[in-house]
Amino acid sequence: MVAHRRIELARDLVKRLLRIGATANLLNLLQKQHPADLATIFSELPEKEREAAFSLLAEQNGRLAMEAISELGPEVGTLLLSTRTAEEIARLAQEIPSDDAAALINSLPEELSIAVLDLMRPKESGVVEHLLEYDDQTAGRIMNPNVFALSEDLTVGEAITELQGARDVEMVFYLYVVDGRRHLVGVTSLRRLLLVSPETPLKRIMTTDVISAQAETDQEEVAQEVASYNLLALPVVDKENKLVGVITVDDVIDVIKDEATEDIYRLAGVVGDERSFTPPLESLRKRLPWLGVNLVTAFFAAVVVAFFEGTIERVTALAVFMPVVAGMGGNAGTQTLTVIVRGIALGELSWGNSRKALFKEFAVGIGNGLVLGLIAAVVVWGMRGNLAIGLLLGAAMIVNMFVAATAGTLIPLGLRAANVDPALASSVFITTMTDVFGFLSFLGLATLFLGYL
Amino acid sequence: MVAHRRIELARDLVKRLLRIGATANLLNLLQKQHPADLATIFSELPEKEREAAFSLLAEQNGRLAMEAISELGPEVGTLLLSTRTAEEIARLAQEIPSDDAAALINSLPEELSIAVLDLMRPKESGVVEHLLEYDDQTAGRIMNPNVFALSEDLTVGEAITELQGARDVEMVFYLYVVDGRRHLVGVTSLRRLLLVSPETPLKRIMTTDVISAQAETDQEEVAQEVASYNLLALPVVDKENKLVGVITVDDVIDVIKDEATEDIYRLAGVVGDERSFTPPLESLRKRLPWLGVNLVTAFFAAVVVAFFEGTIERVTALAVFMPVVAGMGGNAGTQTLTVIVRGIALGELSWGNSRKALFKEFAVGIGNGLVLGLIAAVVVWGMRGNLAIGLLLGAAMIVNMFVAATAGTLIPLGLRAANVDPALASSVFITTMTDVFGFLSFLGLATLFLGYL
After folding, report:
1. Considering only CB atoms, which chain B residues are within 8 Å of A335?
2. Mean pLDDT computed over every residue of chain B
3. Which residues touch B381 (CB under 8 Å, ≥6 apart)?
């Protein structure tokens, strides 16, 4: 990709200019970059060089430096900021929109964040503190409180004059209309302003049926609303329907990415806010609980096997094929689970139409079991010359694929019905089910037909 | 959520009106819905009722019916269309933007799609056929070819007049400027038009440094570009830099969702275009190949176990704890794999900074192994009164967690370096590695220390 190549070149040039100490040239190069490209460059530079380049830019062009940091996301951004003094962070935080400042300050260590808020201009720290009062992952937390609004009493001509004077309003495509007490009463667009004469009252060209979100609404619902109605922005109102902020589609894209990450992670038993470069000790603390749960469930499977120890003692070949039954069931179950969890997340699947999905998964499970069980039986027959063990393995695989289909469908749908995130039905639980039922059917059948083995 | 409740009510009302045959009321209700809400209602209705409601709406308000179908996505939408005649589909396809029509026609059975194209008005089928010439998943395929552009010779006043006359241009926020041969030469915004006097030449208020995409660019790159530069739309140009279309941010959101689904699916060995309601036979055909691969890898593990059959014959208790070593390794490996694959997808991780990630995963793997291995050892000691087997299990778990960390990091990074989608390093391969090395270390150590068991 062309953009990628360009960023690579810039990154290498930054390194070179740092090495030879060409500060003026370096500053010039950095200032020419788009904040998003700067963010990529910073994230790809080794730590020392990143620190040096950022310091230089932060001193000369705080706004651009902070815009790059905002693009990096609060986790990585905070890392770069945490070595600076509270005074400097306070100065820099004032350079960016208050929603971005709030996200950054929120991810600083608590003492530092309090110090930073104390050092900011009262007006700006007030806005940030107000935003931080909203719960994490709500509309209020991700909205931009600097929303441009027009009074409902204006004419189109007056509205255009107001627009011409507006400052610090990045994106104006929807124009929200409010009454004297800032209640949201309508919406119109720049384009519509252009289509009528300046004397037209704003009221006459506005839509009164405005799609909006409450400040307490979960960010995932906001994202779904913006995505399904193809909106570019969503106004945020308080309980009295007063306009308090706006969420733009670029924030929604970040939410959609984060929620997808959360789903992918939960399916694998990873806690949502871990990243590739989360410090090892923190990662350990986040992953251990899930692996602990897995240890308990793994011992369940062990207990099932222990129950059939006598059978294994007589036919050790059973131990050889245990991993095949368990592994195949686990993977088939994970396939089903993934399709179902994603179907729920995309809104295609609900409790209402779940019977159809369940029957489909039954059919697929039995079909997979028949085909793969037969192949496995033949392979075992060929490997060991023992048809009986092959048939046992095949039969156990059919049973286990059916279990996999049932567990992979019902567990996430059940969690959903109980208002729990279905992705929490992580593969850990499914593989426990398939381990337990796989060993139970394989070793159970072997015990029943022990005379033939 | 309020929106959700409203849709549920509407859906139940649709059912009731269908039952009592109140066609006029039903039509009235359907026509009041937003296309996105209609899509939800259609997807939640039982098949017969969906068919009936859609037929009614398609006859009376083809445009709205088709907008709802576009929202449903081509897979589900095609299902609804496929029972109609080619004449009717051709009539309906002309009601929606040609990019949506192209997506729908593309997912129809081939014979039907040819018949439909033949029956459409030549001008419109021409546009659709032209779009279908671009490869699937490229910018050209998802762009809207009806892009509004202004000539560079206009004044601002003339531009506003052109805008007032423009039709069928849904979203105008960026205004693209072209030269006499339709080369893209600049971009400006509605807002900027309002800030200057009508006599100002357009050239003077346009930005000439336009971010655009080539029609052949992969849609994932387009999505990343729109997301990282916070764009609302991206102009698409051909090889000569002529403006051929525009991709709006709502299309990009669909791409981001689809790509996330693809990543989630690949990690679990599911093929990208399967959905909860894909017919069973088709699902079977899609899932079997992966499970077939898994069957081969599962037999690898079986061969490793078979190698130690003599040891298991003497100490059957080993068979009991085999699933613990394998299961824990598999889950730890999946955790690592997931963090790494997602890190690559989000652009945080590249081959350049991968050493740091690898060392981190080593540390986490060994840490997890030490903690969980120790616990497992104690549990086994308690369960069987056999400290030696406990220590073996613990040691094997430590080795296997290290293997899990290495495989989970290096396989996706290696695939990425080889320009293969890292998500293809599905958990199947990782669990094979951890099964094989888990059994190898557990049973291998047991064989070495057989005298102590």
Report:
1. 268-270, 287, 290-291
2. 89
3. B387, B390
B390's CB contacts (< 8 A; 6+ apart) are B376, B377, B378, B379, B380, B381, B384
* Phi and psi based region of residue A127 (left: phi greater than 0; alpha: psi -120 to 50; beta: remaining): alpha
Tokens of A268: 């694998």
Residue A118 is encoded by which pair of tokens?
């104390």
- pLDDT reported for residue A350: 72
Q: What CATH number is associated with residue A54?
A: 1.25.60.10
How near does any CA of chain A get to the CA of B442, in Å? 14
B294, B320: one domain: yes
Residue that finishes a domain, picked among A91, A112, A138: A138
A contacts of B50 (beta carbons < 8 Å): none
A244/A125 same-domain check: no
What mean pLDDT do residues A47-68 have? 90
Inter-chain contact B195–A334, Cβ cutoff 8 Å? no
Angstroms from A91 CA to nearest CA on chain B: 25
Inspect the interface and report whether the beta carbons of B302 and A279 lie closer than 8 Å. Answer: no
Interface contact flag, B298 A339, Cβ < 8 Å: no
In this complex, the residue of A317, A327, A332 whose CB is nearest that of residue B431 is: A327
pLDDT score, position B394: 95
Q: How near does any CA of chain A get to the CA of B313, in Å?
A: 6
The CA distances from residue A398 to A322, A372, A442, B299, in Å, are 14, 8, 10, 17
Q: Tell me if B129 is assigned to some domain.
A: yes
Instruction: Give the pLDDT of residue A393.
Output: 95
pLDDT tens sequence across B330-365: 999 989 998 898 888 877 787 767 888 899 999 999
User: In 10 A of CB A208, how many CB atoms?
Assistant: 10
Question: pLDDT tens for residues A417-440?
Answer: 888 878 776 777 888 899 999 999
Chain A residues close to B342, C-beta within 8 Å? 261, 264-265
Specify the CATH number for the domain of residue A219: 3.10.580.10
pTM of the model: 0.81
Structural contact between residues A288 and B371, judged by C-beta atoms closer than 8 angstroms: yes
CB–CB of A319 and B332 under 8 A? no
A317–B316 C-beta distance less than 8 A:
no
Tokens of A258: 């984060």
For residues A214 and A288, state if they share a domain.
no
- B60 to chain A, minimum CA–CA distance in Å? 23
pLDDT tens digits for range A253-263:
989 988 888 88
Q: Is residue B297 part of a domain?
A: yes
From B191, B217, B376, residue closest to A190, measured CB to CB: B191
Q: Which of A5-9, A66-70, B155-159 has the lowest mean pLDDT?
A: A5-9
| B348 with A252: Cβ contact below 8 A | no
Which one-letter amino acid corresponds to residue A241? N
Give the pLDDT confidence of A217-243 residue by residue, as tens digits: 999 889 988 988 889 999 999 999 999
